[in-house]
Amino acid sequence: MTDKDYKALVLFFDDYTTGFINQAVNAHPHLTKKKHTVRVVENIVFLGEKLGLSPQQMRLAKAAALLHDIGRFSQFETYGTFYDHASKNHGALGVGVIREHRLLSSWPMVEKKQIVRSIALHNSYHLPLKMDKDTLFLTRLLRDADKLDIFHVVTQNYLGADPGENGYLTLNLPDDGLISKRLFERILNGELIDNQQIQSVNDLKLLQISWVFDLNFKATMERVSCCDFIFRIISTMPNSERRTFLIAFMKAHMAKKIA
Fold first, then answer.
1. Which of 62, 88, 90, 89 shows the shortest CA–CA distance to 1?
2. pLDDT of amino acid 227
């Protein structure tokens, strides 16, 4: 795998996504996902440099980041949603695009398998117990880089900085002004929240806050802390005793992780 191979992927990505943007009645969702992908590539480079990746490892990581959401474009065009449980798993859709267009045909088989596997698993609730160490590392790196930008996107949305969003980032969920006791307790137990457990916008915010328990690298946690993502999300939740306790709990947890 060479820089030329990676540049070919960049050209495909730009052409493929531009097709969806130009044909869409509402291009905003597609534009948002394209910009998201660009930032995930930047995030994975940032993390890779912190971790001392070799040039070859960096190309592999960038390729995985570039293609990780390639299934999102057909997903939204077909189903009008980014919610996997109401459509199809976008990781699996992405693998389908890679195979249909033979995007990695020039890459060594080992690297091709690592990229495809990491994309298939980048949005999984839990990773399989048995994975080879190189694929596991790449998958964890991709998941962290992805979460960093999702934190950025949803924080901007919750703070009202994205007027063209129109509900697709919050899955058109109702905002009942409540903080679920059941999901709040999962946070206090340091547990991830599953997509299938959410019923409101505040449930979605708790799910995103719970991702802190699934970050894999100290550099990721440091970036989350530096950007104040978690507490900016919490600030948009109902003012209550649970919110106050949540702030204190997350501050203590994150301080421990970056110490």
1. 62
2. 97
Location of structure tokens 């990695």:
104
The answer on pLDDT for 258 being more than 60 is: yes
Contact 202, 228 (CB under 8 A): no
**Crossing angle between the packed helical segments 28-51 and 72-79, to the nearest 10 degrees:** 160
- Domains of the chain by residue range: 3-152, 173-258
The CATH number of domain 3-152, selected from 1.10.3210.10, 2.40.160.20, 3.30.365.10, 1.25.40.10? 1.10.3210.10
Q: What is this structure's pTM?
A: 0.95
Contact 119, 93 (CB under 8 A): no
Mean pLDDT of the residues in the chain: 95
Q: How many CA atoms lie less than 13 Å away from 75 in the CB half-sphere?
A: 25
72 with 90: CB under 8 angstroms? yes
Instruction: Report residue 143: phi and psi, to 5°.
Output: -60, -40
